[in-house]
TrEMBL record:
Organism taxonomic ancestry: Bacteria, Bacillati, Bacillota, Bacilli, Lactobacillales
Name of the protein described by the UniProt record: Fructose-6-phosphate aldolase
Alphabetically ordered keywords of this record: Schiff base
GO terms classed as biological process: carbohydrate metabolic process
Matching PANTHER family: TRANSALDOLASE, TRANSALDOLASE C
Keyword Nucleotide-binding included in the entry's annotation: no
Localization per Swiss-Prot or TrEMBL: Cytoplasm
Organism: Dolosigranulum pigrum ATCC 51524
Gene3D superfamilies registered for this protein in UniProt: Aldolase class I
Length: 221
């Protein structure tokens, strides 16, 4: 299982990288907008310095094959060939994924709202597919079934594509999608912090310390 952070906040990534086993970082133009205007390539180089092994997934903005190829080249020229190029799966995107794979790029097929869209991206050779879990849930789709079916399809047909589930709005969605067979998930740090900084857990820990102190009149073991 791979856990990635759906964020470009250096601070959040630095803190969580020291606490959990972070596999990488994903971004898209909306994540960059929320973070605030930065020189994205320089910013991502800084993020790599936090942990050189972090896998980076960077999204194109071009909407035609020509422009997507140009974006991909710019991303790789700036950040290196081990970067995953995120390409939204529409007609142009699918066609470009095929081309990018021929040229040796690493590709994450994104903006996936349906099982069929995902299957087409797998067939075109995407390294990862990123189904949008919460956005599909909002469309009343059974996301657990979709992930189970996709995993069965990939394993049965012996594709090497991995499911990198994205767009989570609560941690329950994350665990059910891991159990359904996703190879990887990308999660916003605030959802992880909600679990790690839970007042319920803190209360339990405080109670243990109080009970020890009442019994032994000290706070050390
Ligand atoms: C990540 O790769 C996706 O672009 C992201 O998870 C989408 O999340 P959202 O639905 O919160 O915008």
């Amino acid at each position: 299982m791979k856990l990635l952070l759906d964020s470009i906040s250096k601070n959040e990534i630095e803190v969580l990288n020291s606490v959990i086993d972070c596999y990488g970082v994903t971004s898209n133009p909306t994540i960059v907008k929320k973070h605030g205007k930065v020189n994205l390539f320089e910013h991502l180089k800084e993020i790599k310095k936090i942990n050189v092994d972090l896998e980076l997934h960077v999204q194109v903005v071009g909407q035609t094959k020509e422009k997507i190829l140009k974006d991909a080249k710019n991303i790789v020229d700036a950040l290196g060939s081990d970067i995953f190029i995120k390409v939204p799966v529409d007609k142009e995107g699918l066609c470009t994924i095929k081309e990018l794979k021929k040229k040796g790029y690493r590709v994450t097929a994104t903006a996936i709202y349906s099982e069929f869209q995902a299957i087409l991206a797998v067939m075109n050779g995407a390294d990862y597919i990123a189904p949008y879990i919460n956005r599909m849930s909002n469309m009343e789709k059974n996301t657990v079934e979709i992930i189970k079916n996709l995993r069965r399809f990939i394993d049965h047909e012996k594709y090497s594509t991995q499911i990198l589930a994205a767009s989570f709005k609560n941690i329950g969605q994350v665990t059910e999608i891991i159990n359904a067979g996703a190879h990887a998930v990308t999660v916003n740090p605030y959802l992880i912090n909600e679990v790690l900084l839970s007042p319920t857990v803190n209360k339990a820990i405080d109670q243990f310390v109080d009970d020890w102190e009442i019994t032994f009149n000290r706070k050390e073991i």
